[in-house]
Structures are given as structure tokens and as C-alpha cells.
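## retry 2 of 3
previous attempt timed out at serialization; input unchanged, resubmitting
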Amino acid sequence: MKLLFPVPSETSPDDALRLAIETAAAHSGKIHALFVVDEEGIGRLEAGAPPGAIEMAHEAFELLQARESSRAAKAVEAAQAACGKAGVAVTGEVLTGSPHETIGLAAADCDLLVSGISSRYAFGGHDRPAALALSFMKERTIPVLLAASPYRPIGTIAIGCGGGERTLRAVGALTKLGLWRTGCRIVLIAVDDDPDRAEQKLSGPRTILAEAGYPAVSEMIAPLPKVENFLAACDRISADVVVLGGFGEHRWDDLFGFSITTRMLREARHHLFLFM
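## retry succeeded, writing output
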């Protein structure tokens, strides 16, 4: 398994790096640490210069780019050192360009992207936390594993069983990578007041896991309302990672914070494995 670890430019990489290292070590994986110097973001400063100050702005652009490149090299070296100390194979790279485009190209050669829920990659921190990683999840470029803050070691995995295709794709992506097949407890959680509907939601993920050779899993049915009781169920089992099929079925739920994924991103108390 090859993990892509985009080194954030404006936030601490520690929580996400620890999660990447733990995941790689547990699955005989290797890590590619990539820092993208946001040339477009730095260039916006130059583009906004008033008439008569273009030359000064260009000099400032070159100085900022050189400074960011130097900082990037040190950040990648630190990530490589941490991986080496843990005995995890690692490669490191510094590139200049658009973070979204450059990291997207690198993702095509990797199996899993590991980032932090709070990670930012645009120069000056002008992107929203985790926005870049979530964009790849929405585009189905690569499965995404987002690190909670503070970091928590992985022992229990909760799988949200919503009954739709997104849930099945997320569980399928998890089993394809072989994540947490051994040494962890997996709990399937369905939220519904109707036992028959809850069973239908559980049956698909249960079958995918069994066919992939995972040991028997635990199951839990919680009553409605969905968001509050799903979060409570995750807390009840002390879930460290929550597996979800991206965002909810209704975009308005995401906009107003009514989806499970949106709430969990906001609270940042659990690692999130996401795929749509």
C-alpha cells in the first residue's frame, strides 16, 4: 500500500503524520511525503500590487517563493525522519504549482491519502481546513483518511451503514486496501426506528466484509434522530476511526450542518475514512 501524505503548509502536520505512520506500519505500506509550494497563492500578492510597485512586488514574489521552498524542504525532511525512526519506508518531494492539481496528480499513483481534519495547503491559509482532501474524496480520486486532533491510536472502527451506494463504496474501498483487517474491533452502526430497515442497512457492509475475509464484526442499531444518535453510538463504543460514504444524500443537510460527516468534521474527535 502506498500512502500519500501531503505536508500542510499552514498547520501542524503532527497528528496526520502520526496517523499515516501508524497506518503504513500496520499494513506494510510506504509513505510519499509531498509539499507543494503554492505558486498561485504567492502570485496573488504580486497580482494585487498597485501601479508603480510591480517591480517591488515581483522581488517580493521571488523572496517568498524561495522562503517557502526552503521551509518545504525542511518540512519534508522532518516527515522523512519521523518515518525512518518508525521503520516505515518513505520518499519525499517538494514541487511548485497548484496544490489541488499537483497533489491530485500524485494521488493517481497512490492508494490512500492521509491528511488532517485541520490541514490547510494554500499559501497564507486561505483554504478551508480539510477542503483539499475532501475535494479528492468527492471526485472519487482516492480514499481519504483524515486525522483527528488530538491524535488517538486506532483500536475500534465504526462503520456508518446508511443503506445507500456510498456506504457500500466506502466499505469496498476499505476492504480493497485491507485496512484494519486484524488487530482491531469493527462495529457496524445503523440508525433507524424500523428493525427490518436497519437490518437491510447492515446486510450490505456485513457481506462485503465477510467476502473480503474480515473476521466477524459487531453490530449496533440506534434509534432516530440520525445524527445525534450515531455520534452517541460512536462515543459509546469509543470509536477511533469512523468510516462514512462521504456526505449525506441531501446537499442542504451539508450546508446547514445536519449531516453526520459535517458534524464529525466540525468536532474533529475521530479519525475519518471517507469515500463516495
